[in-house]
């Protein structure tokens, strides 16, 4: 089985490109950011609004989470409830970094990701996040850092939103990256990690670049 690990900052194209490449390769796809978001959502739903580390760690005991790994039938459920859209809400984005910096959360989710990877039935899996190339599967067959200039990343995120929320989003995006960077380094490629800079590439070209790296390694 081929494991493809992809890290990068917000808006670099990780989720969309990983999904597109997984479809083309007939691989499974794992969005690890969705797991961190699902836990943040679960904490908010359960009134852990101060989001102190001990409350978050306690919430892990009741966190019943399921994620789909079929790139064409992607789902995220918490306690059986579909949360695909809810986990993208701004209130979740605003607190997800505070949840993700708790070491117990990281080790809990890392184990879960490794189990999902181990039990994949497809010929390969593309796993994307912030610490996949360095912590979750540092021995992955293909390790990629997907980057894009800050300007391009902001423009991509803004294009998905109304103009009124675009300015707020740009500010939130860079402060979230700054906060996340204090926990894991996803701005610089670790040894053996190939950088794919998508600033000048469109979506299809970025998918092709990833697919080519995977085919070269197989
Ligand atoms: O899609 P976007 O770039 O907005 O973020 P995401 O991939 O959904 O990740 C949401 C948050 O989860 C990040 O801002 C990180 O705080 C956290 N995360 C992490 O700590 N480690 C990962 N492997 C993936 C996400
Ligand atoms: O997961 P991440 O935050 O890294 O980014 P994403 O949500 O996959 O991508 C953000 C947006 O950029 C999506 O609408 C993609 O279609 C778009 N994109 C693009 O315009 N050009 C690329 N080369 C890659 C992604």
Which properties best describe this structure?
218 residues, alpha/beta, Rossmann fold, five-stranded parallel sheet, three-stranded antiparallel sheet, 8 strands, globular, binds cytidine-5'-diphosphate
Q: Can you describe what's shown?
A:
- One of its GO terms (molecular function) is ATP binding.
- This protein has nine helices and eight strands.
- It is α/β, with parallel strands linked by helices and 218 residues long.
- It has a single domain, classed as P-loop containing nucleotide triphosphate hydrolases (Rossmann fold, 3-Layer(aba) Sandwich).
- It starts with a strand and ends with a helix.
- A hairpin with an 8-residue loop joins strand 3 (65-67) and strand 4.
- It has helices spanning 14-25, 32-45, 53-60, 90-100, 103-118, 132-136, 150-159, 163-181, 203-217, and strands spanning 2-7, 28-31, 65-67, 76-78, 81-82, 124-129, 142-147, 194-197.
- One cytidine-5'-diphosphate binds next to helix 2, helix 4 and helix 8.
- The site of one cytidine-5'-diphosphate has 16 residues, from helix 1 and helix 9.
Task: Give the count of structural domains.
Answer: 1
- Write down the CATH topology: Rossmann fold
Strand order of the largest sheet: 2-6-1-7-8
Q: What is the name of the CATH architecture?
A: 3-Layer(aba) Sandwich
The whole-angstrom Rg is 17 Å
How would you spell out the order of helices and strands?
Answer: EHEHHEEEHHEHEHHEH
Low-confidence stretches: none
**Terminal Cα span:** 10 Å
Oligomer: single chain
The outline comes out as globular
**Mean pLDDT across all amino acids:** 93
Describe the biggest sheet? 5 strands, parallel
What amount of the residues lies in strands?
15-25%
CATH superfamily heading: P-loop containing nucleotide triphosphate hydrolases
Number of helices: 9
Bound molecule types: cytidine-5'-diphosphate
The first-level CATH class is given as: Alpha Beta
Number of strands: 8
Roughly what percent helix?
40-55%
């Amino acid at each position: 089985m081929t494991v493809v690990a992809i890290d990068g900052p917000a808006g670099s194209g990780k989720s969309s490109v990983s999904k597109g490449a997984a479809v083309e390769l007939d691989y499974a796809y794992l969005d690890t950011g969705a797991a961190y978001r699902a836990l943040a959502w679960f904490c908010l739903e359960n009134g852990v609004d101060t989001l102190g580390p001990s409350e978050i760690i306690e919430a892990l005991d009741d966190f019943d989470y399921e994620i789909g790994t079929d790139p064409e039938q992607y789902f995220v459920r918490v306690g059986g409830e579909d949360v695909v859209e809810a986990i993208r809400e701004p209130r979740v984005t605003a607190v997800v970094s505070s949840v993700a910096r708790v070491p117990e959360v990281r080790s809990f989710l890392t184990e879960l990701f490794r189990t999902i990877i181990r039990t994949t039935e497809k010929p390969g899996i593309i796993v994307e996040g912030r610490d996949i190339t360095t912590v979750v599967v540092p021995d992955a067959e293909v390790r990629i850092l997907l980057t894009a200039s800050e300007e391009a990343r902001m423009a991509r995120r803004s294009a998905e939103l109304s103009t009124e929320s675009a300015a707020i989003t740009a500010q939130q995006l860079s402060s979230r990256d700054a906060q996340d960077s204090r926990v894991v380094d996803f701005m610089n490629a670790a040894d053996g990690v190939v950088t794919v800079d998508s600033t000048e590439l469109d979506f299809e070209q970025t998918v092709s670049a990833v697919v080519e790296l995977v085919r070269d390694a197989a």
